[in-house]
Amino acid sequence: MNRAEPIENLLLNLAKNLGNPPMLLELAVLVALVALSWLLMKALRKRADHVGAEKRLIHLSPAEWGRLALPALLLPMILVGRAVLEHWQPVHLLNLVLPLLGSYFAIQAVLHLLRRAFKPGRTLLSLQRVVSWLVLCGVALHVTGYLDAVIAALDGIGFHVGKQYLSLYTVLVGLLSLGALLTLALWLSKVVEGRLAIAMPGNANLRLAITKMTQGLLILLAILIALPLVGIDITVLSVFGGALGVGLGLGLQKIAANYVSGFTLLLDQSIRIGDMVTVGPFFGEITRIATRYTVIRSLDGTETIIPNDTLITSAVVNHTLANRDNRIMLPVQVAYGTDLAAAKRVLLEALATVDGPLAEPPPQVQLSSFGDNGINLDLVFWIDHPEAGERQLRSDINWAIWEGFQHVGIEIPFPQRVVHLAREANNPASASQTSPA
């Protein structure tokens, strides 16, 4: 049996024709096309610099202009040049340049999408390495002429799933297609999020809700496109959808409720990112509203993850829903016999020495009640920065009140009780009297 030879080895074809006049003409055409592409890229970059950043669909750094824009402009020019030249002479140089330049552009384009779709970290670095090696291996097999043989070998390894035959090649193509489409979907969702941030700067909840729904639809569309590439009939998803419905009804209803509650919170604007809320024992700032949970960051830096269903079904105190102004009531007790007018003056003067309380509405001193140990007064004032907390503010005001009371001699009473003892009449006769036996 004769071993099959590679169909076409681009490297060998190029090596056999080095120095020939047709090769020199190809080289001259290639240099001219590179120069033309470079000039066109400079013109486009200059024009893009005059366009506002909010109007750009794709944001490229100075380095990315050379890595992405230049090969994107050069590739179609080389295709046209090769189509014209191949009518008169061989185009071995352009045949080799095209896959090399195409692989370089593919790697840079995928890396650009990955950097926009994923956060920097080890996962992103691993994905970049995998993509680079896969593209380089593919182009190496292509230029050496062994790509078709490798595809045939991979296609010969497979198994049957019912009536469906899945080969290693189709599974690999399906996984790569799904990964590429999911990356594209995540990138598009980021683009939509950026556009919404410009169009609706003051409505973070609605932006987040639209972004989440857009991202979900794009991911679903990517899966529906990728499955037929593997050879999977998407009609089987109807069976999966029925099974998923049963699962939601039996065991996943709490999770489903959290997801629905998340979209409800984003759309009804009752809780927004940046609001100061109290949920049960937890007080803090809303830093994130995800589809399943909400994160509350307390003043000491700790973060509490609360299921969205809890925020829908339980009472939530939103300190900044319609107005950031919050009223604070500081109780103070003075002894009976205190000059209340002097006490009121000291309380208001102490409040004036502290930064934070608002001048409007004006602070007040209210007589709350007459207690067991003294007279209960309330110092009432307003603040407009609940995210800073009240603990330090109350401490500063209490220090000022204590110093003011000490200066004018106002006493803060401590708990005391007056005990009256009943005096028994002195009756020695009765005390000494005994009963007969």
Structure description:
- With 437 residues, this protein is an alpha+beta fold.
- Among the domains are: 1-155, no CATH class; 272-318, SH3 type barrels (Roll), CATH 2.30.30; 326-408, Alpha-Beta Plaits (2-Layer Sandwich).
- It is built from 14 helices and 10 strands.
- The strands form 3 sheets. A 5-stranded antiparallel sheet has the order 6-5-4-3-7. A 3-stranded antiparallel sheet has the order 8-10-9, covered by helices on one side.
- The radius of gyration is 39 Å and the shape is elongated.
- It starts with 9 loop residues before the first helix and ends in a 5-residue tail after the last helix.
- Residues 1-7 and 430-437 have low confidence and may be disordered.
List the helices and strands and how they pair.
Elements: H1 10-16, H2 21-49, H3 62-85, H4 92-117, H5 122-144, H6 147-155, E1 158-161, E2 164-167, H7 168-199, H8 204-230, H9 237-250, H10 253-268, E3 276-279, E4 282-289, E5 293-297, E6 303-307, H11 308-313, E7 317-318, E8 326-334, H12 340-352, E9 364-370, E10 375-383, H13 391-408, H14 428-432
Antiparallel strand pairs: 1-2, 3-4, 3-7, 4-5, 5-6, 8-10, 9-10
Helix pairs in contact: 1-4, 2-3, 3-4, 4-5, 4-7, 7-8, 8-10, 9-10, 12-13
